Amino acid sequence: MSSTDHAASTDHAAWADHAAAVLENDRVRLTPITEADREGVRAVAMDPAIWRYFVTAVETEADFESFFDVNLADHAAGRRAVYVITDKESGRIAGSMSFGNMAEADRRLEIGWSWLGRDFRGRGVNHWAKALLLTHAFEVLGVERAEFKTDVLNVQARRGLANIGATEEGTLRSYNFMPGGRRRDAVFYSVLRAEWPTVREALARGPKKAVPA
User: Fold this and answer.
1) d(CA 161, CA 213)
2) Which neighbouring-strand residues pair with 171?
3) Could you give the CA distance from residue 191 to residue 167 in angstroms, rounded to a whole number?
4) Deepest in the core among 1, 64, 94, 178, taking most CB within 10 A?
5) Mind listing the pLDDT tens digit for each residue in 52-89?
6) CA separation (Å) from 197 to 115, 138, 148?
7) How far is residue 15's CA from residue 78's CA, in Å, rounded to a whole number?
8) With 0-12 CB in 10 A as exposed, 13-18 as middle and 19+ as buried, what is 209?
9) For residue 116, pLDDT beyond 50
10) What local confidence, expressed as pLDDT, does residue 20 receive?
11) Would you say 161 and 151 are in contact if contact means Cβ atoms under 8 Å apart?
């Protein structure tokens, strides 16, 4: 797609509208969140391990209802494009990811708010879902920069971002409060347009195999 095509793709609607599309490959399907997803998401979200490094704690049914309602509201308002991830092998909802902080004038957005249920970690779901979002970001929305951030303590997430080809840029110290009161240091990563062809080729080869200890 040429730069002219990139510009044309976003001439007639805001990024939030273009972002909210059904995305799929052979492994996963990403669909914009709806009320109909509530119970399927609940079935995988009630696991404390998911939220250890998340800025929202989901520990009770009330927490979940509030969490899900915020996702619906953010999506409806265009603050984020919130996707529900379905694992095609099992047919089950696996988790969620979002586009957010969409700075259309600067051709920049964030991919984040990412979580997966216990049964779907380490199976390539994260890889194939982020591949879809990056492809949509660069080849449909026409971004110049896709960025990610995570907790400096979240080794698994940091490894996952490195494995999809994102470049670690640095750490913003004492970035925000976490639910328990800890001040989080946030590590930023990015993929730039000039890097996208190389990253796309690496993503197409599939997830990197874990090296046995």
Assistant:
1) 20
2) 187
3) 6
4) 94
5) 999 999 999 999 999 999 999 999 999 999 999 999 99
6) 26, 10, 18
7) 9
8) exposed
9) yes
10) 79
11) no
